[in-house]
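During the second half of the funding period, the structural biology subgroup turned its attention to how the target accommodates small molecules. The most pressing case was zinc ion, which had performed well in the primary screen but for which no bound structure existed. We therefore specified the complex as follows and requested a full 3D prediction, including the ligand pose.
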Amino acid sequence: MAFDLVVVNGIIVTASDVLPLGIEIGIKDGKISCLGSSLPRDANTQIIDAKGAYVTPGGVDSHVHFAQDNCPTGDDFTTGSRSAIAGGTTTVLAFASQEKSETSVIPVVEEYHTKATNQSYCDYGFHLILTNPTPEIMQKEMPLMIEQGITSVKLYMTYEPMKLGDSELLEVLMSARSLGFTTMVHAENSDIISLITDRLEAAGHTDPYFHAISRPQIAENEATYRIISLAELTDSPILIVHMSSEIAVKHVRKAQTRMLPIHAETCPQYLFLLSERLKGSHHDAFEGAKCVCSPPLRHDPKDLEAMWRGIANGTFTTFSSDHAPSSYDHPNGKKLGLKSGIMRYRDIPNGVPGVETRLPLLFSYAGSDKDSRLGLQRFVQLTSSDPAKLYGLDGTKGNIAPGYDADLVIWYPEEDLKDGVNIEQKMLHHGVDYTPYEGMKVKNWPRYTILRGKKVWDRDNGGILGGMSDGKFLKRGKGKIVVGKTGGEVNGMLAGERDYWV
Ligand code: URP
Ligand code: ZN
Ligand code: ZN
Ligand code: ZN
């Protein structure tokens, strides 16, 4: 049997290994069918000569916001997924978002399917944002969702229109425990933020910079500790999304050393950007709005360092973009923060773009150079294999091994790019009008992105080669626990005490 595609002369990197130079990848019908040497080829076999290049599994970005009603000037599936493949991401997990007034999630999911079907350049799945988890939804609809391959939910502890109280959080965690879906949580204390915001506003402090003042680390710290406690009580695994503060991450680390199944995520903005960016430029003080996201950028470089440590030492299971952009120069985008006639941060839509720059930014620090901060295997774990496992794509995505989808990123040696790549808005493929990483240099950029055996991105020859129907909906299985285990004991409870009531 000859292969459709053989990738030769590369250095294959997986979550566990950096294989010796020259092992070939044989691809047939969109799947990796074997690794070996001198693989059979015939006149119809396409060859990619990855001479000396690292070959990593396609990126899995497990946290992107595409086509959500609350980001009308952000990316839809077409622009968002196009941006994804240009940066080496072949799978995105986006959100289907319930509004509080909606008493069924079935039409919500149908709506997002309509928004994505035949509009995506990369493979995609959905997490369900639950803002009104009624007993009907949890008992009757969640089993259906799982059957349909939507095996994870996101819960908010903040944002007035979305937040859940502790009793609702507990109900969802108990349901997750029995049904086996994965629970993501946005952990910030809502009342702390409201109190400070009202008082800042009364004092006239409403510039974008005060967004960071209004959401102090203690708000993330408290909510993080609280949701870990609720997860411990209910013996339910969670993933805390977009973590930004050292004090909050310490709770995660401590829980992990007790073997609790507490996972955490951080994002590029919390490795690279500080809150001074919210002050804007001397040309335009409002420009700080470009960097308004929640949790906010932090003040102290020590927090960036702490996130880097969590990246390197295994505290974080996923490194996702939280791509949640709004256009800057648009009356319904970031400029909503000027609608009252003054700069008012609470009117600025939250979120930054980042789906395209996620892999190149982290890859610049991966490897064994003196300035590297993580190994290549760790890079693969964080950006691809671990989110695939956690969200039920194990066996399909996140690995270069027989049976997996042939999703690959090929990074030619850095010398090919001479002086690295300067990130500029004009080279990106998203639908918004800026990048917070403008002018930042990365060492490398994916030369090829391959989605199920098809070359969909060629940096030097045509750019985007894929099409809007290349991306398929991923019917996911139940997620695996990557960190810790269930069945542990609860601090302060007698062994077995929980068995009386769960
Ligand atoms: O600022 C952010 N991250 N906005 C997107 C929504 C969310 O909380 O993930
Ligand atoms: Zn969030
Ligand atoms: Zn200037
Ligand atoms: Zn988000």
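Two results from this model are relevant to the next phase. The two ends are 54 Å apart (CA to CA). The chain is about 25% helix and 15% strand.
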